[in-house]
Every structure is written in structure tokens, then in C-alpha cells.
Amino acid sequence: MKFQASELPIGKPQSRRKTSRLAPLIALVIVITLPLYYPTLRDSWKQLYETASPPYVDSITQAEPPPTENPCSTECHPDNTTALDHRLAPIRKNNDKDKSRYRGELRSRVSDEDQCDLFSGEWTPDADGPYYTNDTCNSIQEHQNCLKFGRPDRGFLKWRWKPDDCELPLFEPQQFLKLVREKSLAFVGDSVAQESYAVFDPSLVQGCESVKTEKTDPNDERRPFNLYLDEPDLHWTSQIALFDYVVISAGHWFFRPTYFHLRGRLAGCLYCSEPNVTHLTSYFSYRHAFRTAFRAVNEAGFRGVAFLRTYAPSHFDGAAWDKGGDCVRTHPYRRSEVVLEDYSLQLYLIQLEELRVAQEEGRRSGGTFKLFDATVAMLLRPDGHPSKYGHWPVENQTFANDCVHWCLPGPIDAWNDFLHQLLKRETDGVDYSVAHTLFYFL
To answer: Most buried of 23, 83, 156, 315, CB within 10 angstroms?
Structure first.
């Protein structure tokens, strides 16, 4: 999928723990394919493009709901495989209860059934956390540096993810560097994906040199996007075959004004004012984008392991993001207190469906696609967002609260733990946390 920020509405635009110094070589590369998030974007374009009101999930108001679904002609699909493969989805229902049941069935198909499920569990108290601070880490981005900007509570730092049926060891930098010695790792995604890289830096920066990153497209982010849904972005696809491991993710940027292009033609738009342009949903672009990205990986001759890091839900309580919605909770939800539903559930299903397609294609091309399921764990952490603590207050100026990105230190430190164990399974084929648990109970 290729994007560009457009000046004209239609047509081509005119781009955890502290450790001693370590010696092993690691090529840790982050590839950002979508522009970075800035809370101030709202003031520039919401005058022209008004977002729809979000659905309410019990007491939780989620962030960026899609507009009303509109039918799309067959010309919107690049080929007949874009429509859902009915072999993979024998039951596609419209209500969330049926979708939740379908989610469980689909998730079991894309998961490693012979391994402990790291992603089903609860957050448990951890008096020892965090294992670094905003003072000991120089790679935390300003909008994530909640402690620097005055967040008063510290309870959100005292939780650790505990899978139901095994242990999830804490990230160990020395062990991780051994796993990826003479290997290369790429993160492909948006600004939340960039946070994935920042999560690693606190632990690895003492042993490795940080890699400079830059946005792939310097155009004005306040203008509508032109999204070429069937054209892979050569910024990363031209290099992807060189990597051993790839983590692919994206989500929240699919809810802003966009013009969709397929086969070199304008196929439709999201939040545009032209009456003669087909109005499509975020679901449409989301599915196309992941299918194009996965297909590009398979067609590039990739022989490594690609992980899909699933959608991390936002948590806007009380109102939409641009109408004063906030995330003020100071502790996690229990699993029984909240469910994944509405548009967050739909995006998650799209990811699983496209992962399943990619897995089947990968078996023929030589690539491997696996699930890195962060969705449930992050759904339970409304307390982990910056809210108003991603910047200093400015007199006579109002900013939207950030309930999309994550504080560092914070809940996404668990992504270190997840990825460490996923890579360990790939390198030695033994999940020692499971072996230890089985030995203990026997």
C-alpha cells in the first residue's frame, strides 16, 4: 500500500532492565510507512471533514468509528480474492456476539496450537516495575513521556501481563541480543509501530547504537491522503527480503480523510465532500492495505518470519477524541469488565482474516506469517495512555487528549516480553516458560 498526502482533492500529488554495555551486532531497523501522529491535526482538517460520532461500549467511548457502510461495485476490488474467502469465514454475522464467536474460531486457525497462548491472560500486580524510567531512557518520544509532563499517578506502572496457562518472562536484553545476533528486525507500520521501537531502546540502547529514522513522506499531514491500496510502498517492500524478522502493524491512521485509488483510478473516499465520489469505509481500506502488504512480502522473496502485531484499541471515555473524550482511569480492566466490539472488533477480524490468507500464500512462497496478538492485553489498559500528559499545557490553547498512544514506561513494555518469546520459539523451538510450568504442575 502506498500513500501520499495530497494538495489537490483528486489526482497524483506533486512522500527493561538495565544492563552493561554489550558487544553483539544487531541490525534493528524501523520502517515507518505511514506519517506520525500529532494531536494538533484536528484543528486543521475537522472544519472540512467531520468525523462520525463513535459508538459507546458500555461506559467506554471508543475513538475513531467508521462512517456508514456504502456498497462498492466490483471495480473496487483489484481481483476476486479481495472479497472474503468463504472457506475461511463460514459464518460472518452482523452482531458482535456472533463476531466474537467467529473471532475465537479464526484466531485458533492463525495461532500456533502446539504452543502456549501468550496472549490470553490478565494483568497482575507487579511491585517491582518499571525496569527503566524516563530519566534513564533517551529514546522516549515527547508525546509518550507522561512522567516528564506531570502525570501524578504511578500505579499504571505496577502491572505485568500473565498468560493463563504459562509464564511470560520479562524481557532480558542480553538474551534478546543473542537471539538476534547477526539477524535483522524491521518494524513496519505507523506511529504506534514507532513506539514498538522506542520500547526496545530503553533496554538495548546501552548495547547498540540507535538507528536514525525519518518519515517516508514529508508532505503536509493536514491534507487528505491519497492512498494507493494495490500499490506496495517501495520504501520498505524493496528491502523486506533482506530481513530475518518483520513486525507489521497499523490501525488508527485509517480514520482520517482519504482518497482511495485502485488500478490507477479513484475508487472512492473517506470523509470527502464530492457527491460524485463513492463514499467507502475504513474497513474497505484496512482490508486492502493489509492484503497488499502481506502479498508484497510474499512476492518479494521473503524467507524469514513476519509477525502481525494486532490492533491496539484506543480508550476515549465520555466523548469522541475531538469533543473532549479522555482516558482518566488509573488501573487496568479485568477481562470480565470489557469486551472487544464495534469497529475495534471489526478491524481485528480483518487482520486475522488477512493473516490467514497470507499464511496460505506463504506456504507456497517460502515466507512464514505468525500472530503477535496485542489486542486483548491492550484493550484492558485504558490507564496506559498519555491523555493530557504528552505535552506541557499552553495558555489559552486546547489540545485533544491522547488516548491512542501509550506512555513509556507503560503497558507496551509487555510488547518486549511478547516479541522476545516469539523470537525464542523461532530460534530454538523450545518454549522454556511452558516447559517450566508443566514441570511445576507435574
So the answer is: 315
Q: Spell out the domain ranges in the chain.
A: 2-441
Per-residue pLDDT tens over the stretch 153-166: 999 999 999 999 99
Cα torsion 161, 166, 167, 168: sign: negative
Query: 229, 170 in Cβ contact below 8 A?
Result: no
The amino acid that residue 131 corresponds to is Y
Name the grid cell of 176: 534478546
Burial class (CB in 10 A: 0-12, 13-18, 19+), 323: middle
Report the relative pairing of strands 258-262 and 265-270 from DSSP bridges.
antiparallel
Whether the pLDDT of residue 173 is over 70: the answer is yes
Residues in CB range of 199: below 8 A, 6 or more apart: 408, 412, 413, 415, 416
What one-character-per-residue DSSP string does 226-291 give? EEETTS--HHHHTTGGG-SEEEE---GGGGS-EEEEETTEEEEEES---TTS-B--HHHHHHHHHH
Distance separating alpha carbons of residues 124 and 115, to the nearest angstrom? 22
Strands 184-189 and 368-372: unpaired
Model confidence, pTM: 0.75
Where do we find the cell 474467502? 85
Q: C-alpha 65: how far from its chain's center?
A: 16
What CA–CA distances, in Å, run from 18 to 35, 197, 208, 262, 406?
Answer: 31, 17, 13, 48, 21
Average pLDDT, the chain: 75
Cell of 6: 495530497
> Using CA atoms, how far apart are residues 418 and 413, in angstroms rounded to an integer?
9
What pLDDT is recorded for position 84? 40
pLDDT at position 437 over 80: no
Interval 237-266: pLDDT, tens: 899 999 999 999 888 878 889 999 999 999
pLDDT digits (tens, 9 = 90+) for 56-93: 222 222 334 444 333 343 334 434 343 344 434 433 44
Confidence band, pLDDT 50/70/90 cuts, at residue 198: low
Residues classed as catalytic: 191, 402, 405
Q: Pick the more confident residue, 436 or 206.
A: 206
